[in-house]
Write a structure and sequence with these properties.
Rossmann fold; Class I SAM-dependent methyltransferase; Methyltransf_11
């Protein structure tokens, strides 16, 4: 995990907490079934951010080690989840989690793996997982062709977000997953997810993304004005919808 990928969300934390999507409950059900999780299971959430997925795991009674190198994001998670006895906050990276070898039943990376897809990450995951342990790589992927608004929003990002194309997690290819998972074997399951926004919420969701210009900058204000035009053109009764496909990759490493 590079210094840039570690720090780039530091000024986005408030919007991240408020406006990033959660995950469908079916995701946890799928992991419970396929990984045979029980109340005593130990899960590592690597790149845990503000704890969006960590919270779902804790609600199921698992012991969760939330590994996050970005201090503002980790502190946000600590504030939300720190009173849960199953929650363990870890200042670590994907390549150096600091966790004990062969102690983890399930390792999850929710909206994070594209930041640390490296050989060092795979080696560290193999070190901390139990022999039967698996890795779940999870993303909420915006459906950019869901409707005219989704298509227009995607075009706006391409036009006004400097490194959107470079850091887009959909740059990962099938080859990346084949190389990551043991013997190239993994399952992929998809679930539907969505968020409904008024304009303030839409802007907050947009500015939670590290590739969108910071709101207080001139470029950020220009982006916000363009976003307002999109909203005014496409909203229905003062709302627009972000539709997602939540993808869950699962296998051994």
């Amino acid at each position: 995990m590079t210094n840039n990928s570690t720090s780039r969300f530091s000024d986005r934390v408030n919007n991240y907490v408020k406006y990033r999507p959660g995950y469908p409950p079916e995701v946890i059900g799928h992991l419970e079934k396929e990984c045979r999780l029980s109340a005593g299971s130990v899960v590592a959430d690597v790149g845990s951010g503000t704890g969006i997925f960590t919270k779902l795991l804790l609600e199921k009674g698992y012991t969760v080690y939330a590994v996050e190198p970005n201090e503002p994001m980790r502190q946000a998670a600590d504030g939300l989840l720190g009173n849960n006895p199953g929650y363990h906050s870890v200042n670590g990276t994907a390549e150096a989690t600091g966790l004990t070898a062969k102690t983890i039943d399930l390792l999850v990376c929710a909206q994070a793996f594209h930041w640390f897809n490296t050989p060092g990450t795979k080696a560290e995951f193999k070190r901390i997982l139990k022999p039967s342990g698996q890795v779940a790589l999870i993303w909420n992927n915006r459906d950019v062709e869901a409707d005219a608004f989704a298509t227009a929003y995607e075009l706006l990002l391409q036009q006004q977000s400097g490194d959107y194309e470079r850091v887009n997690h959909q740059n990962l290819s099938e080859t990346d997953f084949v190389n990551f998972y043991h013997d190239g074997k993994y399952s992929l399951v998809k679930f539907h997810n969505q968020q409904v926004f008024d304009f303030e919420e839409l802007a907050g969701r947009a500015f939670s993304s590290s590739y969108v210009p910071a709101e207080e900058t001139e470029a950020g204000q220009h982006f916000k004005a363009s976003l307002r035009e999109l909203f005014d053109s496409y909203n229905r009764h003062g709302k627009v919808i972000f539709r997602y496909q939540t993808e869950v990759y699962l296998g051994k490493v």
